[in-house]
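for the writeup, i need someone to sanity check this before i put it in the appendix. the sequnce is what the collaborator sent (i think, or maybe the updated version? ugh). structure was predicted straight from it, no edits. if anything looks off just tell me and ill rerun, i have time this weekend
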Amino acid sequence: MLYRLKQLRTQLPTVHLIAVSACVFILGLTLVMLPSQQVEATRGDIPTPPLTVHAVIDGADVDNVDQKKSTTIKHATTTSTVIEDTPENWTSYTIGSGDNLTSMFYKAGLTARDVYNAANADKEGKAFSRLYPGQTISFLIKDGTLSKLRHTESKLKQTLLISTNDGYKVEVIERTPTTSHKYTSGTIRDSLFLAGEEAGLSSKKIMELASIFGWDVDFVLDIRKNDSFSLIYEEKYLDGQKIGEGPIIAAQFINRGNKFTALRYTNTEGNSSYFTPEGYSMRKAFLRSPVGFARISSRFSLKRKHPVLNRIRAHKGVDYAAGTGTPIKSSGDGKIIYRGKKGGFGNVVIVQHGSSITTLYAHMSNFKRGQKVGSRVQQGQVIGFVGKTGLASGPHLHYEFRVNGVHKNPLTVKLPEAKPIAKDERSAFKSTASTLLAQLETYQATTLASFQH
């Protein structure tokens, strides 16, 4: 190298020699600064944030493994393979009217043998026997063979059939929604239904409210303008979305200045009912009206002019005008002692309640199927439907209430009380009642304050 520089010194001008020397110096410095392969591999092992992985880094296993997924890490000379879940290719069908397990399997291209195996997968054989319109049934078929079957009954319940080496197994998957309390109130200007809708209540919830107070308030006769109500009821949520409503847990109804309060209580046996704050059952032995939200077209009178016969004839009951087909409910627990035609009454049902009371329901268009003389019926159970059979000028229910064979005015007769809270439940009920009353009063006070502001 020194010899070559001497040659260049003699051959090149001084300026050129200085330039060549600078280039040689820079080249040497660059070679010194370059990293070796050892350094490059070390850089590839720079620590990364914790990951769920199984990777091979320069031949060394890193055990941070998830059974479902592997994640790629790639640094310099390091590589690994990405493994993601393969999505399952389910085929779903909505169950229609008349569909059953066999028809749904045929839609999916499966055989009668598949139907048999699925239907008999659990010991009781009932896992997939109850299919209802609107529900969903889904199939996972692999290589022409049923791998999984899923019956979605609701957002809260699914039944899953899974193929295993030993046949099929059945799993029931149930989810529990979260529950919150909702308060609302309203004042009646026209009708309970309109006031309830303005308060944001569903038709079902309005009917539930009416049924709770149905023994004390006749929603046909007693309702007045400026009557009011307030209630707390449950709302159910799943994954942050409302999926339904629960029962009313506390309610108050003010009718003609009279305040009625109902509190829901579940006893140690799991039975729920409504009671006054003092522990008396809201449920009486008889309903005040056997037809919901009908209009009274004729009252109890011994000197009424008959609309068809056009002469004075005692009217020993109450007529409720309602559309043909409106359900008629038994006003109390009892036994059917007559069911058939009865002169000008047309189609009639008579129910015996205990030893001294009977109720009569006349002019029915049809009887409730499955019942007969001797059938036991419960309070509120449908026994027939409004019509105009016999001597009737229009569709209505003629209702009579008899005590020891003597006709009483159904609108004013004193109804027997149901049993109060059991003695061994009183302490627990008192605690529950205090909590519910405090909630109801707090909500009412807050609502009142907001209106005043």
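The chain has eight helices and 22 strands. The mean pLDDT is 80.
thx in advance!!
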